[in-house]
Design goal:
Layout lengths: L4 H4 L3 E7 L8 E16 L2 E12 L1 H4 L1 E2 L8 E2 L2 E5 L10 E4 L4 E3 L8 E4 L1 H10 L16 H4 L7 E6 L11 E7 L12 E5 L10 E4 L6 E14 L2 E11 H12 L6
Antiparallel strand pairs: 1-2, 1-6, 2-3, 3-9, 4-5, 6-7, 8-9, 10-11, 10-13, 11-12, 12-15, 13-14, 14-15
């Protein structure tokens, strides 16, 4: 069991999206903040400009299905909540229209939205509120990827819809069910064994190749199995962080962020 939830609570957010033009149904999931530094200058002085992105899934931030038989909808409205706040009280609420970046491969369930302005406003209005995005220092390095293997433990931090009224992130323990270095279904993703509950889509997945947890994936799908005439979550699929790097390269340009 990996004890990681408290360490990364300040980066993980409860996400809910809706299509306000239809105003029927809402989809919930998880997202996490990821901060990058991009080169900038002011009056000849060069400096690193910090930009913050909310990372989640394509099916959470871009297209979602709220299960009422109406099919996929384009998400237009974003609400973000955090632990220690009343359920459904949005700390950030804004439009999604024209702001969502998705991976160039539509089969890769990954998307992000820049929330730099919203986070800066939140910091100014609530200076005591802890906000601690993940950074490139939290990513697995190529040499650390080589240390991972089948049956090695991993864990995710997310908001489970079965406990959504508590509005607290929870730690889901799992294991790599196949070697994570192999691309599951020929996509940059890996498969885990463990209980992956609804609402956890977009959760950051961590492994411990050395002395501290490192971000290795973004949870994207739960797979159920039948047990005593009921279905229980048993597997999950996560997008590799290599795809996250690719998406940031597509948005900011390769070599233009760190």
């Amino acid at each position: 069991m990996l004890e990681i939830s408290n360490k990364f609570n300040a980066a993980v957010w409860h996400v809910s999206v809706s299509n306000v033009s239809i105003n029927r149904g809402e989809s919930i999931g998880t997202g996490f903040l990821f901060e990058v530094k991009t080169p900038s200058s002011n009056k000849g002085v060069r400096y690193d400009y910090r930009r913050v992105f909310l990372v989640s899934n394509r099916h959470v931030l871009y297209e979602y299905d709220c299960g009422d038989g109406l099919g996929m909808r384009r998400a237009k409205h974003l609400r973000l909540c955090r632990t220690n706040t009343p359920a459904y009280w949005p700390l950030i609420e804004n439009t999604l229209v024209g702001r969502v970046h998705t991976h160039s491969n539509p089969d890769v369930d990954l998307a992000m939205i820049e929330v730099t302005n919203e986070i800066n406003t939140l910091k100014a209005n609530c200076p005591d509120f802890e906000i601690k995005p993940l950074t490139s220092e939290n990513l697995l390095t190529p040499s650390e990827w080589r240390l991972l293997g089948q049956e090695k433990p991993c864990a995710y931090v997310g908001y489970f819809s079965i406990h959504e009224t508590e509005n607290i992130p929870e730690n889901g323990d799992c294991r790599f069910s196949i070697d994570p270095k192999v691309n599951f279904e020929n996509l940059p993703q890996f498969k885990v064994t463990g209980k992956v509950f609804p609402g956890a889509s977009g959760s950051p997945v961590f492994a411990v190749p050395g002395s501290k947890p490192k971000l290795c994936g973004i949870l994207a799908e739960s797979i159920y199995r039948d047990f005593l005439r009921s279905q229980i979550p048993h597997w999950g699929v996560a997008v590799k962080t290599t795809a996250l790097v690719e998406l940031l390269d597509e948005i900011l340009g390769k070599g233009n962020w760190k």
